């Protein structure tokens, strides 16, 4: 059987995700909760303002994890 006639190689079936990606709306978007600021760079995080503790954006969290892992 060739690829052109085989239905398993239909267009778009390999990379389709089962659900659309969900990203956080921009800071202050209408209808969404206000997001906490990152304590390092002040960018909005994925956490609501009511989150207790030091909140980090994904970039700063990744950098902090790298610094912690390499600090012997």
How many DSSP E strands?
2
State which percent range the strand residues make up.
5-15%
SSE string, helices as H and strands as E: EEH
| Count of discrete alpha- or pi-helical segments spanning 4 or more residues | 1
Q: How are strands sequenced across the largest beta sheet?
A: 1-2
Structural class: alpha+beta
Major sheet: size, sense and barrel closure? 2 strands, antiparallel
Helix content: 10-25%
Terminal-residue CA separation: 56 Å
Which value, in Å, is the CA radius of gyration?
Answer: 20 Å
Name the average pLDDT.
74
Shape: extended
Low-confidence stretches: none
What does this structure look like?
The chain is of the alpha+beta class and 72 residues long. Helix content is 17%, strand content 11%. The protein has one helix and two strands; from the N terminus they run E-E-H. A two-stranded antiparallel sheet has the order 1-2.
Task: Chart the SSEs and their pairings.
Blueprint: E1 35-37, E2 44-48, H1 58-69
Antiparallel strand pairs: 1-2
Outline of the structure:
Helix content is 17%, strand content 11%. It has one helix and two strands. Strands 1-2 form a two-stranded antiparallel sheet.
Note the main attributes of this structure:
72 residues; alpha+beta; two-stranded antiparallel ribbon; 2 strands; 17% helix
């Amino acid at each position: 059987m060739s690829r052109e006639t085989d239905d398993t190689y239909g267009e778009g079936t390999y990379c389709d995700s089962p659900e659309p990606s969900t990203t956080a709306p921009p800071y202050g978007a209408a209808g969404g909760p206000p997001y906490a600021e990152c304590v390092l760079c002040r960018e909005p995080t994925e956490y609501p303002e009511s989150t207790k503790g030091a909140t980090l954006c994904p970039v700063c969290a990744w950098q902090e994890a790298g610094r912690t892992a390499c600090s012997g």
